[in-house]
Specification:
By secondary structure, the chain is an alpha/beta fold. It has one domain: TIM Barrel, CATH 3.20.20.80. Helix content is 41%, strand content 16%. The strands form 2 sheets. It has an 8-stranded parallel barrel, surrounded by 7 helices. Strands 10-11 form a two-stranded antiparallel ribbon. Strand 8, helix 14 (368-386) and strand 9 form a beta-alpha-beta unit. The radius of gyration is 20 Å and the shape is globular. The structure holds beta-D-fucopyranose.
């Protein structure tokens, strides 16, 4: 059980749970088009056991029962995402079945008193757009804008909030420089272009949605605290660079209309011509910002080409992902983001949680480590609020076990256990802990 209760948080503070389309829906259904994740998973060596999102949790058919679980636990909000390839299988042409699905899903949330918090893009780019260069192609800004108009033209009237992009760093750097996520590129120029274009696409989608009269618009940034491996000046510089390209770059572009000097120096030659002219769009005003936070990295300098550093193992307890549990990073990011970038804008923790090797024993899943993780990170949120940061909500990742990208179905992040053969759902102890806290029992 948690020691927290609702009364410890500000009035109207939102508690929610998050998921994403490709990770839960079952992409094989409903006339959805092929995505870069289908292609990436079908290429040997990219994903554990070459697993893909074809069936996933079959949420496409079971969404009502899944929303019942959110309602029963007492959550206020549901952060979900809209699959571009479901709504527009070739990235450009609407699919009525896809639009109908999100329409039904929206109404089902409202029927249960859940605030719909949409994210437009959570990584499943239609393959047809990748054929045209994907995030390397500047035209993606207009393509995302068109997608935003199509899906929000259908459900935008009922959204509580809309975010453009989930995790800019993952879309750009993890997927085009490190090659760990689709489309699996390892190319400094592709990565730099993607870094800029993902922001340009974000700003374009914001402008389009404002043009439609939508409000409460934001974006979701992932942040990972960077700790120098030792006291040397070299380690400090390596950690500062990591912090710049992981954390500062995207919020600096979106809120301050500039990129960090270290990155302009290192990557400027790869940025598109006249990139500075795009900041008017990139920094289109937002109504709120979301932070996804999981862990920190310990950064040590290395020889070799840019960025000349590596992550080394840290001393703290680790999750099933091997990620250190470091709640202070969440507190410090909330404080720093408000101070340096967002000022009085509402901040939301849009993802936070841990993977655990959960097993069902006598019909129960005793995920005490996850309860402790949530407890310590909710504490970090309270500390940030006490420091004056306008944090207005917390969304746990995730409602249920799902497709954990390159790690397939092996890593379980859910508050609800999913048997990926029978598709049976079993609420874990962490779900019961939220239920007790949120219902005040
Ligand atoms: C985040 C992603 C989410 C999930 C969690 C564990 O980076 O947004 O889809 O994979 O990590």
């Amino acid at each position: 059980m948690f020691t927290h209760n609702r009364a410890d948080f500000p009035k109207d503070f939102l508690f929610g749970a998050a998921t994403s389309a490709y990770q839960i829906e079952g992409h094989a259904h409903g006339g959805a088009g092929s995505t870069i994740w289908d292609d990436f998973a079908a290429t040997p060596g990219n994903v554990v056991r070459a697993e893909h999102g074809g069936q996933a949790c079959d949420h496409y058919h079971r969404y009502e029962a899944d929303l019942d679980l959110l309602q029963a636990a007492g959550f206020d909000a549901y952060r979900f995402s809209t699959s571009w390839a479901r709504v527009m299988p070739d990235g450009r042409t609407p699919n009525p079945e896809g639009l109908d699905f999100y329409d039904r899903l929206t109404d089902a949330m409202l029927e249960r008193g859940l605030k719909p918090c949409a994210t437009l893009y959570h990584w499943e780019l239609p393959s047809a757009l990748q054929d045209k260069g994907g995030w390397r192609n500047r035209d993606i800004a207009g393509w995302l804008g068109d997608f935003a108009e199509t899906i929000m033209g259908r459900i935008g009237d009922r959204m509580y909030s809309v975010a453009t992009i989930n995790e800019f760093w993952c879309v750009a750097f993890l997927s085009h420089f490190l090659g760990h996520h689709a489309p699996g590129m390892r190319d400094i120029r592709a990565a730099t272009r993607a870094m800029h274009h993902v922001l340009l696409a974000h700003g374009t989608a914001i402008e389009r949605m404002r043009g439609m009269g939508l409000s409460n618009l934001g974006a979701v940034f992932n942040m990972e605290w960077a700790t120098p491996a030792d006291d040397s000046a070299e380690a400090a510089e390596a950690a500062a660079l990591y912090d710049d390209y992981y954390n500062h770059f995207y919020v600096s572009g979106a809120f301050n209309g500039r990129y960090p000097d270290r990155l302009v120096a290192a990557l400027g030659a790869h940025l598109p011509d006249r990139w500075q002219d795009d900041f008017a769009t990139i920094s289109a005003p937002l109504d709120w910002a979301g932070i996804n936070y999981y862990t920190r990295s310990i950064i040590a300098p290395t020889d070799g080409p840019w960025p000349r550093h590596t992550s080394v193992e840290g001393p703290l307890p680790k999750t099933q992902m091997g990620w250190e549990v470091y709640p202070d990073g969440l507190r410090d990011f909330l404080i720093r983001t408000a101070a340096d970038y967002t000022g009085d804008l509402p901040l939301f923790v849009t993802e936070n949680g841990m993977a655990n090797a959960d097993v069902i024993t006598n019909g129960q899943v005793q995920d005490d480590a996850r309860i402790a993780y949530f407890e310590s990170h909710l504490n970090a949120v309270k500390q940030a609020i006490a420091a004056g940061v306008p944090v207005q909500g917390y969304m746990a990742w995730s409602l249920m076990d799902n497709y954990e990208w390159a790690l397939g179905y092996e890593k379980r992040f859910g508050m609800v256990h999913v048997d990926f053969d029978s598709l049976e759902r079993t609420p874990k102890a962490s779900w019961h802990a939220f239920k007790a806290m949120l219902n005040g029992t």
